[in-house]
Amino acid sequence: MIKIDTQSQEFQTELQKTQEFANEVCTSRNLVFNPMEEVNTSTLLGLTRNQTIYDTKFCPCFMVIGETKEEQLSSNNRICPCTPALEKEIPETGKCHCGIFCTPEYAKENAIEEEIEKKRPKHSGGLSVEVCKRILEQPEISHEELIALLEARTLEMIDFNLVDVREWMEWNQNRIVGTDYLVPTTSFYQALQRIENQKEKPTILYCYTGSRSAYCQRVMLDMGWSQVANHTQGIISYNGERTSGEEN
Description:
Layout: H1 9-29, E1 32-33, H2 37-54, H3 69-74, H4 83-93, E2 101-102, H5 104-119, H6 129-136, E3 140-141, H7 143-154, E4 161-164, H8 168-173, E5 175-176, E6 181-182, H9 188-192, E7 203-206, H10 211-222, E8 228-231, E9 242-243
Parallel strand pairs: 3-8, 4-6, 4-7, 7-8
Antiparallel strand pairs: 1-2, 5-9
């Protein structure tokens, strides 16, 4: 697992170049940034990380396949701004997979929805064992449900793994209390080996906005994992307890 000091002068200089690159993408393709600034920050950090490690702006929401530079460039890895985003995702949904590049119409509509969401009351409550098990069987889990499930797990009513599929630098800065494993998307297959023997245990994945975790969810189900749920709203909307820094 590669650990990068995001506060280093080298990284900050590269981050500024990535911001300029993203600005040019928006200008040249008549796009705008996501109205949720946290989405843009997370994606820019991921692109900078990949540029630092691979010397290429591989999409931070997907695995980087290949050991050598030649293998990576020939393995159809997404390079920002990626062709699937420009030709399919943005025209059909209004935004790219990572969410940073949007149509002006999408940005305007979702800025309004975000304001409504901020004003909506948040709540969670104790659940029965049966209800908890039914929630774990769902393919998608909200942040209220995740908070309740973590509470139920603390009371030993149920058991599951909570897996963060973001990168180490994101995990180190801010993660959900109760996270059991970090399995970064860019090195997913290698990192997943540490819990390969837990395929039958219910697993909940989360990332920043729910896009990377949805991608990893499909991969794990294809690999034979029996029960994998996605925290669709991501840590960006999680209003439960968080922590940061290295584990003790």
